[in-house]
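Example 9 (inverse folding). The structure is encoded as follows.
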């Protein structure tokens, strides 16, 4: 008889400029849907979804806070990334200024978020490659610089519209979190603990959702 499935729960927050597709990424992950006319988030939205890690026989449940990107809501963001275990900083690959805004969010997380938070820098709208403004090599160089500062960060690209890469993002985040440590006796996950997962390694491609 196979061992019973093990379970861990973590808080994840999405940050980024308005219209980069944060909500679309989340809804593709949670509901496997895409709405081209989705309205901007007001304040923040809360969703949950789980991923399975069969290699360690575990299910990771994400409590997801999708924050509004408009400047007038920026002061509320610390309410949502406080005590978060992971953050997706999302930018639009066709909008270079959105990449700068994502970097600004990472600077803020470095100063105020829990030590050891897992950060994924997400380039959305990969289906619009012919309109790309953000150089992928520049993104890689930036992430390597952050790692040199001891930040637990990696980068992925996805298309919320097609679904490509979305599941892989959340699966990779789950693999980077201290799942085993949480299951084996911690009363609740600690964002300050390092997972020791190799973030440079890309998993094999899987179908979305």
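The amino acid assigned to each position is listed next.
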């Amino acid at each position: 008889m196979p061992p019973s499935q093990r379970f861990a729960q973590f808080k994840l927050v999405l940050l980024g400029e308005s219209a980069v597709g944060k909500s679309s990424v989340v809804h593709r992950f949670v509901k496997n849907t895409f709405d081209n006319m989705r309205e901007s988030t007001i304040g923040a939205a809360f969703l949950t979804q789980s991923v399975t890690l069969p290699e360690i026989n575990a299910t990771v449940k994400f409590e997801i806070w999708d924050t509004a990107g408009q400047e007038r809501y920026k002061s509320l963001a610390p309410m949502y990334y406080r005590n978060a275990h992971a953050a997706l900083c999302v930018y639009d690959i066709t909008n270079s200024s959105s990449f700068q805004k994502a970097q600004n969010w990472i600077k803020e997380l470095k100063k105020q978020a829990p030590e050891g938070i897992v950060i994924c820098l997400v380039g959305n709208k990969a289906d619009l490659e012919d309109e790309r403004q953000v150089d992928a090599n520049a993104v890689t160089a930036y992430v390597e610089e952050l790692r040199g500062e001891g930040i637990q960060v990696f980068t992925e690209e996805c298309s919320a519209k097609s679904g490509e890469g979305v599941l892989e993002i959340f699966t990779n985040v789950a693999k980077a979190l201290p799942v085993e440590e949480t299951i084996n006796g911690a009363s609740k996950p600690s964002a300050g603990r390092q997972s020791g997962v190799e973030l440079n390694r890309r998993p094999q491609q899987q179908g979305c959702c």
